[in-house]
Design brief:
The protein contains four helices and eleven strands. The protein is an alpha+beta fold. It is globular and about 50 Å long.
Length: 197
């Protein structure tokens, strides 16, 4: 994949990481002056049937729409583009210049109370905006939070987002597939009933 140009403009230059549903790369946008860096996420859904492909396309486009709106917030990476190439899906997002929170927290090291309160206030202000957009992140954990070099907390990886209709009854329980990470997922989400919490 390194050296490949995707979408006719995003040249892949380094592998950043990946998981079960895809891989993330650092790329240069060849169509902008100075070829600025960006992040390209390659989503690799398991598709073995034409109907599954149609569903994957629909979900991919819905996720892109959600990310486009969420990217209006300064603490959520902006979506620059999304496209399909050779039956693989790609999203291009703003590069967050900083470190993943998981790397700055040391196992067994306790944080001071003031640091925990500051972190929670930062996280909750981002979540308030996400919930105002009728979206639930569903995978909040230290590896999906980054600390920019300027000290600002940023929420990343919205691959498991759940969007609810603005006109749906908020008290109604909607059952869905459980998405998230063990140890971080709340019980209601594990049971397939995520809520704004």
């Amino acid at each position: 994949m390194l050296g490949t140009t995707l979408g006719g403009r995003y040249q892949i230059c380094r592998y950043l990481g990946g998981g079960g549903f895809g891989r993330t790369y650092l790329a240069h946008d060849q169509h902008l002056p100075g070829t600025p860096e960006c992040v390209v996420k390659q989503l690799k859904p398991r598709i073995n049937h034409p109907r599954a492909y149609d569903t994957a396309c629909r979900l991919f486009n819905r996720e892109a729409e959600v990310l486009y709106v969420l990217g209006e917030h300064d603490q959520i990476p902006r979506l620059f583009a999304h496209f399909e190439e050779q039956q693989e899906f790609y999203m291009v997002q703003e590069l967050v210049d900083g470190k993943v929170l998981r790397r700055t927290l040391r196992t067994g090291q306790r944080l001071e109370e003031a640091a925990v309160i500051k972190l929670l206030k930062e996280l909750l202000s981002i979540l308030a905006f996400v919930h105002e957009q009728q979206v639930i992140h569903r995978d909040i954990k230290p590896s999906n939070l980054m600390r920019r070099n300027d000290g600002t907390l940023v929420m990343i990886d919205f691959g498991g987002v759940k969007q609810f209709s603005r006109d749906s009854d908020s008290e109604r329980t909607v059952t869905t597939v459980a998405v998230g990470s063990a140890g971080y997922m709340p019980n209601e989400q594990l049971a397939g009933r995520p809520r704004y919490s």
